[in-house]
Structure formats: structure tokens, C-alpha cells
Amino acid sequence: MTESAPAERLFRGHSGRLLLVVSLGWFAIQTGRLVVSPLLPDIQNALRITSAEAGFALTAMWGLYALAQYPSGRLSDQLSRKTLLLTGLVAILVGFLALAAAPVYALFVLAAAAVGLGAGCYPVAARALVSDLFVEKRGRAFGLHSGAGDLGGVAAAGLATLVLAYATWRAAFLPIAAVLAVVVVTYALWSAESLTVARTDLAVAATARRILGDAQLRWLLLTYALYAFTWQSAAGFLPTYLRAKDFSPLVANAAFAVLFGVGTLVKPAAGTLSDRVPRDHLTPVTLALAALSLAGIVLAQTPIVAVAAVVAFAVGLMAYPPIMQAYLMDSFPDESAGGDLGAMRTVYLAIGATGPTFVGVVHTQASYDLAFACLVAALATGAVILVALARKQ
């Protein structure tokens, strides 16, 4: 069921090819989902919707993405990684084409939900495959794979700027669909696994007992939920927030690109560092830096200060996932690693998916400043919890 290579090669051989293709798929998926954020003001104008309605559409996409994590991880353990990866790729390809064609808000929400459901089938199986392929270089491999998603964020900002200059927001999803089609064909040819279809037991109760019965995993789950709440809120509304602060669209999109551009460098570096330094010592530092920097964004009055704060925010925010995911995969039993990671991702991403709706509602009732100040508090709380856990080790 699992695939392995004689040597752990990050850029060559069987392991390197599979890491490349699943990372390219993650790049395309993230580009497509994140391009919605810089396009959001134009989408709102075209569909005549409020910030709260826009936030609900993002929550639908992220929420279904979250709910699919556990079943997809469990099925990738019971069937094959290839089965879930190809299913997710094809489903999200259809979802992006539907987004490009959606003429009214109701259909836009349905298309966003389809994107979320398709995308939800992909990342746990992809990370489980990476974990299958790499042991000694697991942190570096997770960093490179995660960094591909952040490169997608950079591409999303550039794609949005280009599309809005020469076409409408709908055109942004077509090149992404083309890249996904290439990934489908390439991965199907390169993977030696079989496509497997069979009845399986999701074992929800056993998985819940295994994770929730461990006090440390419960606290780690809470910190990841606070992180995900902030991350999905920022990914959904950072460009809109900066434009609300009277910064130009160019500055807002540039800051959004910087957020992910920094991530492409920080995630591989953080993953490599976590192979050498205890991971529980690194994680609180990342969240503390992210909290302080996000406070700087809230207080920023000039574009230069805002962009500088975004850079520091990105360093802290983007360093967290590869470190924590490698730590979690080290902790899970091999035979249930995909399902256990999927279960945790379902919970923390489901909580995180409420973030865009929270920001949209708080803005509607009060201000973006108050909404983002609440995100600062969420990150600070996560950092304090992680410090307490590290002291117990």
C-alpha cells in the first residue's frame, strides 16, 4: 500500500519524482484557493454580496475541506495513497471550472464547496505519502512540500493582478485547472501504487480515543486550531483589510504575495531545523513571533510598516506547520498515521474555517481592526500553551 525508495532523495529518483509531483499538485490547489482572496473585492462587486456573505462562501470552502480530512486520511491508509490523491485532484479540477462559470452567489457557494471537498481529499494523503518516502529527511521533505503551497500563494497574488488587468476574475481559475490536469496524468504514470476500491471501516471512535485520550495531543490540537483560525482568517481577508486601511490594491496584493513568498523560504528552513532541534522548543517561538507581528499589522499606518510587519508575520506563521506536522507524524503509529493526521486536521481546520466568517461578521458589526486584534490574542494563547507543554517535557 505504501511506496518507498531505496534512498531518500529529495530531488532525484523515485522519492524525488513523487515529492515533486505531489508538491506541484499542492501548489496548484493552493494557488486556486488563495487567488480568491485578492479577487474578493471584485467578486463581491460582481455578485453584489456583503463581506459576511463573502466570508460564508470562504467558510463553506474551508469547512468542507476540513471535514474531508479524516475520511480521506483513513481511506488512504486502508486503500492506497494513489486512490485518494487522484480522486482529490479530479474533484478539485471540476470545482475550479465550476467557480469560473458560476453566474450568481448561490452557485458560487456551491462551486466553492466543491473546491473545498475536492481539496480535502488531497493533503493528508499527500503528507502520508511524503512520510512513507522519508524518515531521516522527513522535516526537510515536509518543509519543501509545504513551501510549494506558499509558492502557490505568491502565484495567486501575481495571477490576480494579471487577470484583473486584462480580463475578469473568472479567468483566474482556467490556468490552474490546466496545471491540475498535468499533475493528474503525471502522477498516475509515475506512481507504482494501484487504484483500490473496497469497503472500509473509518474507525471514528477508536481514532478519537487514541487522540483525545492523550493529554499532550489534546493541547497540541487546541494550539493548531488557534493557528488555523488565524491562518484562514488572514488568508481570506488580509488583502481586503489592507485596502480598508486605505492602502492601494498594489500594496495589498504585494503584501499578500510577500506572506507566501516568505513561506516558500521559511518552511523548508524550519523543517530542516526541526530535524536537528527539538520540535517542541521551536513551535512556541513561531507563534509568539506571528502574534507580535500581526499586532504590528493592526497598528501600521504606512505601507512600508505594514509590509515589514507582514514579512515578520509570515516568518512566524509559516514556520509552524512543517515543524508541527513532522512532530505529529513522529508520534502516530505507522499503520494509522494517515487517519490520525486526518482526524486532527478535520478538527483544527473545521475550527479554523469559521475564521473568515468571524472576520466578516466582526467587520460588519464593528471593524477589521477589532477582528484582527482577536487573531493576535488567539496566536498569543497558542504560544503560551506550547511553552507550558515544552516545560513539562
UniProtKB/TrEMBL annotation:
Major subcellular location class: membrane
Residue ranges constituting the Major facilitator superfamily (MFS) profile domain according to the UniProt record: 18-393
GO MF term (any one): transmembrane transporter activity
Cellular component, GO annotation: plasma membrane
Compartmental location: Cell membrane
InterPro entries listed in its UniProt record: MFS, MFS_dom, MFS_trans_sf, MFS_Transporters
Membrane-spanning parts: 18-40, 52-71, 83-102, 108-130, 142-166, 172-190, 219-238, 250-270, 282-300, 306-327, 347-364, 370-390
Membrane topology, from the record: Multi-pass membrane protein
Keyword terms: Cell membrane, Membrane, Transmembrane, Transmembrane helix, Transport
Coiled-coil positions: none
PANTHER family: INTEGRAL MEMBRANE TRANSPORT PROTEIN, RESISTANCE PROTEIN MDTM, PUTATIVE-RELATED-RELATED
UniProt name for this protein: MFS transporter
